[in-house]
Design brief:
The chain is mostly helical. The protein has eight helices and four strands; from the N terminus they run H-H-E-E-H-H-H-E-H-E-H-H. Helix 6 packs parallel to helix 7.
Length: 207
């Protein structure tokens, strides 16, 4: 190990126990959320189809999950299907021309993320954790691997998202991910949950 390199964080026994409990809680909460949100999600799907009849309702793309294993992430489509995959999957300066009017609303309110509850139900994601990245975000992947972040399942919301959302730089994002890894606990997750509600209501950091 080179001088100045921070070793990957190793989860403690109590943190590993908490993560197992958290996974069970994620399943139950995701199931309840899908039941409660079934009608709103059907309405959103209908609105997406009506606004763009020739476009698919859902956008599916490969993201990197726990242990660095790729998985398919699903969102309500917010862009035209002609958008390049690298643009449709992330936040890029030249992406706005591809965003539909309804898609802009869905993105700002994060309603486009609701189908990811199915990924939580399948055990691919958690309600709270580091946000899943596209494979092309190599700089953040490298930093996450060095920190040991891929011991965790990716989340619908995370510590970086409530501390800047779309405006967090790569190094800062990785630092937040490591901070969450080192402090993962019920108290930390409840703090992120409360801050997520505030961010969504105020739309702070939304691109």
């Amino acid at each position: 190990m080179s001088e100045g390199t921070t070793p990957a964080y190793i989860l403690s026994a109590s943190q590993r126990r908490y993560i197992k409990i958290k996974q069970a809680a994620d399943f139950l909460l995701a199931l309840c959320s899908l039941i409660i949100l079934a009608i709103p999600m059907i309405l959103i799907a209908g609105a997406v189809k009506i606004s763009s009849p020739k476009e698919p309702v859902l956008f599916k793309h490969q993201r990197i999950g726990k242990d660095g294993v790729p998985f398919t992430l699903t969102k309500f489509r917010s862009m035209k299907s002609c958008a390049p995959q690298y643009i449709a999957a992330g936040h890029f300066p030249d992406s706005e021309e591809y965003v539909t009017p309804l898609g802009h609303f869905l993105r700002v309110t994060s309603l486009d993320e609701l189908p990811q509850l199915f990924q939580v139900l399948a055990g691919k994601m958690s309600l709270i954790g580091p946000r899943p990245l596209i494979p092309q975000e190599e700089r953040v992947h490298t930093l996450r691997r060095k920190a040991g972040v891929y011991q965790l399942r990716p989340g619908l919301t995370g510590w970086a998202q409530v501390n800047g959302r779309g405006f967090v730089e790569d190094e800062e994002k990785a630092a937040y991910d490591r901070e969450y890894l080192e402090n993962i606990s019920l108290a930390m997750d409840l703090k992120i949950l409360c801050k997520t509600v505030t961010v969504l209501l105020t739309r702070n950091g939304a691109k």
